[in-house]
């Protein structure tokens, strides 16, 4: 059966097609998610090539102006590492709610977070594309500001993502910044408290472990964010998204396999990993680049206070890294059965 049991899917050669009678609301949600996936897969290359091609047409001045502005914005204004260019209009736009309702995505608060200091939110797991992170912290679709008044989240992503025309502007409007030391110093060093840097700690490496039902977390040797928190005296907030790893199926890439070896080498050379994954399509439920409609619940834990140490040593970093991992495990264990995870499942730090 299809949507809410009222329509029937059609199968052709093993491919399940979505019913023609699906409500337009559902169709629009799928379209918004498809655009989002395109924006982080093919659109960056299309906009880059189009801009370069424009230099050889009679509209060359448009492309040249765009390039000059981007160079100036990147190297002089340094927008992506100086707090972004947040647009509340963009963060509350209708398409953000459609994106949320597709899965749906929800934000679960477990403790108050006071706007009297700055924070680092650690987001886990990365998943394939980090849909929960973008929705919860790159928009107001799940009501972040209502749940945490006085807290301003900055979703951090690779600096490379800010090199693409249009995508750069979109990210800045959504309040995103690059995940660099300069960016973190700007956010956490702000004289105005209540600033929160949101970091997907596992990054590209963790995306390779984004299999349904898998809870391997790339955190064992990720300690740079702990050092930054200590340098600024910023509290740490563990965050776990149940369902993030269930959105896609991924090729068998267990450690030691030929596929995984290729992915690891590619990441070493280029800086990001190419996960071989598939989900559903625009008009079918069997194969495609779109994520499956699986619920994502992002549970935000209680802040972990840390002292300010201008030059933290190895012992201090190790101490609070252990505390952070313990608190993340506790957060997962105390909420897992409420979100469809078996009681005998535990986080494994790699």
Q: Could you characterize what this model shows?
A:
The protein is an alpha/beta fold and 350 residues long. The chain has a domain at 102-131 and 144-156 and 175-349. It contains 13 helices and 13 strands. Strand 5 (152-157), helix 8 and strand 6 (177-178) form a beta-alpha-beta unit. Helix 1 (24-39) packs across helix 5 (94-102) and helix 2 packs across helix 3 (60-77). The longest helix has 22 residues, at 314-335. The protein is globular.
Number of strand elements: 13
Q: Determine the mean pLDDT.
A: 94
Structural class: alpha/beta
Helix content: 25-40%
User: Ranges with pLDDT <50 over ≥5 residues?
Assistant: 1-5
Number of helices: 13
Q: Strand-residue fraction?
A: 5-15%
Gross morphology = globular
In whole angstroms, how far apart are the ends?
Answer: 40 Å
Strand order of the largest sheet: 3-12-9-4-7-5-6
Q: H/E series, N to C?
A: EEHHHHHEEHHEHEHEHEHEEHEEHE
Largest sheet: 7 strands, mixed
Q: Radius of gyration over alpha carbons?
A: 21 Å
